[in-house]
Amino acid sequence: MNEPVLQVSGVSVVLDGESVLEDISFSVRKGEALAIIGPNGAGKSVLLKALLGLVPSQGSIMWAKGVHIGYVPQRFHPDRTIPLTVKEFLLFKSPAFWRPTKDFFAHLDHELSIVGLKKEILGHHVSDLSGGQFQRLMIAWAMTGHPDVLLFDEPTAGIDVGAEETIYSILHRLQKERGTTVLLVSHDLSIVYRYSQHVLCINKKMICHGAPEDVLTPGDLKRIYGETGFYHHHEDPTRTT
């Protein structure tokens, strides 16, 4: 059995004197997909930032030795007043920024092809991309260093359903073909069922953790979202067939 890529024990986060997360514990193994769900304000984005050391936390966060992490933040919007090409945008990520080589550009072309973008897009301005194209670009950007783990904070927020399906298909392909470990925040329970092996349910505290079909009971969904709670689903998340 694979050793855990990530082990989290008793993690809490206090920001500006307010408890944002309390006593969160879970682990993720190589090649697994973990979905993180919860209502708005539950602390999902803060948890990803804590895992990356971007916000102070208490408790234990242990990444496997030598693990390389890619991260796509929530609703990243470039300054559209700056005439930045896709090529320039991607080079900012790379240690080859000052002296990019032919091998680097060949690698870049490959990563773009993985997310369904042609190399001609390198000459386009970032401001001209659609929402779906930009999200695919962000995935390619996160992949340029061959990360072992990819963290996605609502990767399909604000894009249409067709583009949304493409994004999740890309993440699933990376998981299957490269053994990439994926942690993603999502409000769409049908996506959780289709693409994740485990789900972490939080509302500032941990409510449930395990296989979606085992832990996403009607009772737990009520505890997570309340009587009139908000979540997306393209199919009944509590169906038994």
Automatic annotation (TrEMBL):
Pfam families: ABC_tran (PF00005). Belongs to the ABC transporter superfamily. Residues 6-229 form the ABC transporter domain. GO terms for molecular function: ATP binding; ATP hydrolysis activity. Keywords: ATP-binding, Nucleotide-binding, Transport. InterPro entries: AAA+_ATPase, ABC_transporter-like_ATP-bd, Metal_Ion_Import_ABC, P-loop_NTPase. This is ABC transporter domain-containing protein. It comes from the Bacteria. It comes from Candidatus Sungbacteria bacterium RIFCSPHIGHO2_02_FULL_51_29. Coiled coil: none annotated.
